[in-house]
Amino acid sequence: MRHEAPKHTNRLIHEKSPYLLQHAHNPVDWFPWGEEAFQKAKAENKPVFISIGYSTCHWCHVMERESFEDEATAAILNEHFVSIKVDREERPDVDQIYMNAVMLLAGQGGWPLNLFLTPDLKPFFGGTYFAPQARYGRPAFSTVLQDVSRIWKTQPQEVEKAGSQLAAYLAKGQAVPRAEGALGESLIRQVRQAALATFDEKEGGFRSAPKFPPSMLLGFLLRLYAKTKDAELLSPITVTLDKMAQGGIYDQVGGGFARYSTDDEWLVPHFEKMLYDNALLAKAYLEAYQVTGREEYARVARETFAYLLRDMRAPEGGFYSAE
User: Fold this and answer.
1) Hey, is 138 helix, strand or coil?
2) What is the DSSP letter of 251?
């Protein structure tokens, strides 16, 4: 059977990342993160468009299909921008910097993470998923591209100033002062009170949808309960573990947890499964079994470990990061 050669091939064809290789035949003239792209942006005085995601990210696939495989959208990107693709699992350092920028610019983050940078890589505008058509009062992605290009050409000094201010703010935020000594009881009390104040007594979890499994907080509460036998802590632990295990976020057939629930009841999952989520959750259920003696927690831990060994282990012996 004869297969036609791809119509387009860009620089990502030489990369190792599954996510970058996924975009290697887009009509977008993608660059990987590196000096070649940076030098081109400076030489041509073009803004940089950087798009960050990972191989099992649902909305990353959607945006690729809708926009990055679209010839007209690619033409705008290729003419007016230097476009860079980043795999957040390969470059978490780059992802963290620009996630902080989007959190400041848009008030929320997520993937795909899409930003516009000055040629010296200072972010000045960005967001997450951009739809191909205008909807819900938000412009189409092609309109965003055209507007950013126009503003860069007509108001470069204002854009540079905004980028420099944001970069300075981000740099200040990265400089976390180092504290000496042990964690104090007052901080532990603050975390305890914050957990109790945000606990959903009916459905478990903390705060409202979308609900992410609170693995680290559960671990903290379990240790605090084991040490103090504070009865007020037991309900946030057990209700959350029970509701997650009984809901759609947990694979009732194959074991393992999806990344998060789109609703308050842990019913409708965001279907990707992450290795680190399941490792932390298996540990939480195992420790809950040790503290409470409830067999259902041991069962969920066993099923989650079995899922990881069955479906997430590579033939070479290592583990896949996500599916």
Assistant:
1) strand
2) -
Helix, strand, or coil (residue 260): strand
Q: What dihedral do alpha carbons 230, 235, 240, 246 form, nearest 10°? A: 140
SS3 200: coil
CB 185 within 8 A of CB 143: no
Conformation bin of residue 269: beta by default, left when phi > 0, alpha when psi is -120 to 50: beta
Find the Cα–Cα–Cα–Cα dihedral 204, 210, 215, 219, rounded to 10°: -40
pLDDT tens for each residue of the chain, 323 residues long: 556 778 999 999 999 999 999 999 999 999 999 999 999 999 999 999 999 999 988 899 999 999 999 999 999 999 999 999 999 999 999 999 999 998 888 877 889 999 999 999 999 999 999 999 998 788 999 999 999 999 999 999 999 999 999 888 888 765 556 667 777 888 899 999 999 999 999 999 998 888 999 999 999 999 999 999 999 999 999 999 999 999 999 999 999 999 999 999 999 998 889 999 999 999 999 999 999 999 999 999 999 999 999 999 999 999 998 89
Measured CA to CA, the distance from residue 146 to residue 177 in angstroms comes to 41
**The residue type at 62:** V
Packing angle, helices 275-292 and 215-228, rounded to 10: 20
What single DSSP character describes residue 269? E
User: Which residue, among 179, 176, 199, has the nearest Cα to 187 in the 3D structure?
Assistant: 179
β-pairing, 113-117 with 260-261?
Answer: unpaired
- Burial label, 102 (beta-carbon count in 10 A; 0-12, 13-18, 19+): buried
Count of CA atoms in the C-beta half-sphere (13 A) of 73 = 21
How far apart CA 33 and CA 91 sit, in angstroms, is 9
Query: How big is the chain, counted in residues?
Result: 323
Q: State pTM to two decimals.
A: 0.75
CA distance to 24, 103, 224, 247, per residue, from 128 (Å): 21, 10, 37, 28
Main-chain dihedrals φ then ψ at residue 208, nearest 5 degrees = -105, 180
Alpha-carbon distance 166 to 195, whole Å?
32
